[in-house]
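anyone seen this seq b4? input:
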Amino acid sequence: MISNEIDIVFFAAYDGDIDAIEKFLANGISPNIQNEDGKSLLHVACDDGYFGLLELLLQNGADPNIEDKDGDTPFDYAVFRNHKEFQEMLIAHGAIIPNRQSSVERNWQMIQEGQEHVRIMQTLLSLINKKDD
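predicted toks r here
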């Protein structure tokens, strides 16, 4: 499958277009197809909150333990997004609950820490500017 075809499948997934994904699956597209970031259609469903897509993919044999390039599984995305019913569905289909912090969570923490550093610098600069006035 060429990159353009993969993009078309993923655009349908990002739009939550279950009918299109059903047609792709009926025409032989693997439910475990991955994009250049290693994300699968299950990752998209869990990240974007498409429960119907999650069900469809799992019913068609999608691997609930498939990892993206960062080592995150669809379960990691469901946990990060706090989609409890997604987590339950993935576990019911064999998802292994990881005993580690996902890269999604680590990246989010780094962003929050960076924002805190910016706020501190802004406060210091405003204090310096007040002193100069």
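The domain at 3-98 is CATH 1.25.40.20 (Serine Threonine Protein Phosphatase 5, Tetratricopeptide repeat). DSSP finds seven helices and no strands in the chain. kinda curious what u guys think
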